[in-house]
Sequence to fold (422 residues):
Amino acid sequence: MALTKERNDLITLVENGAPLGEMLRQHYWFPVLPSVVLEAGGAPMRVRLNGSDYVAFRAGNGKAGVFDEQCPHRGASMALAMNEHDGLRCIFHGWKLNVQGEVIEAPNHAGNEETFCKSIRSNQYAVREAGGILWAWFGQGESPVFPDFPFTRLPDSHLAITTQLVPSNWLQGVEATVDTTHAGALHQSFVALASGGNERVNLAKSSKPTFEFEERPYGFRYAAVRALGDGRNYARVNNFVMPWYGFITAPEEKGPATAFFSVPVDDTHHRAWFVHFNLHAPIGITQLSVTPDPMNFPPLPPGDATNNWGQSRSVMKRGFFSGFPQHFATEDFAIFMSQGPRMDRTREQLCSSDRALVLMRNQVLQAVQEFMAGEPPKLARGSDLKYSDIVSFGGVYGADETWRTLLEDRDLYGSAGTGDGA
Fold:
């Protein structure tokens, strides 16, 4: 069933006090930037998230901070500020904010400067660095549980992280993450290139899957189950984690897995994150690990609506299905952009394979409605919420077993966090 306009607005709009934006701000940590792009003493970086503008920086002493872009004095951009040992100094009048966002110097004020600085109101945001990412919480009061996913405990050698600004609403990105069947159509050429002798990829291509769902304190697991014809089944079990995370199982046992984030920038843009990680060994050389610009990869489509977003019909004639050979994510970005800056879901017609998409939307909607009713969202503040236990997995199991047997029988975490690659 298509969504009403009112419900579509509730689960897509984040700006100007929209309930979704306020719920996300209060109850979830935001990934801000890959840690590697912040240089100690370097230029502050402008960051737009959830319809608001911030600066992120690493002070000369190595500590990172995030605060509002506008100086609390006269509103000049702190992206222009001098980065000093322990904070930023606005170039307009010399006011200085420390890494916590507190005003500690106001050299143009006549009188007791220390007392005056303590009287200045400034928003102060909790920050944390983990898993190669600078995170921030923009709410008030008691902070939510930090998303200490298994990859956040890994050494840098086990991680490759990139991100891209995409001109479409955040939910379009999340929907692609939980829409497993689009890979067999949109990404079929990349799947063919990757399959080769990879048994898991070839098994995943073997037949149409049936889907099973299990709601969890963080969102849900969804298993794509394929009958192998000999009484055995092959399952790939992925996770949707509220509000924007997708964890996809590794294509090879003890190989690198991927987490996708689709984080709202504003109503018509999101930042797509790609975290490639290996719980068992160093990541090695991948497209993500060797990109020269982790803030601009994978590439956006090379055009716009006037030329079908740069789709190459000549490449299609030579057998590449989508016409976007740059990267599988470029294919996704082209679809998002073709849906419009914020998709109108009142006209869509769903099918049986869209069950994960519907469940995800319902969980987001429920969280917004709980927030509007003055309650903390269950999937954000539950007492049994443990991000560190979230893992996606796959494998073959017998006729008298279920896909949950794979979770019970295997050492899925391996050497996570030890850095020894055992």
Observations:
- The domain at 31-137 is CATH 2.102.10.10 (Rieske Iron-sulfur Protein).
- The first strand starts at residue 30 and ends at 34.
- The chain has two domains: 31-137, 150-409.
- Residues 411-422 have pLDDT under 50 and may be disordered.
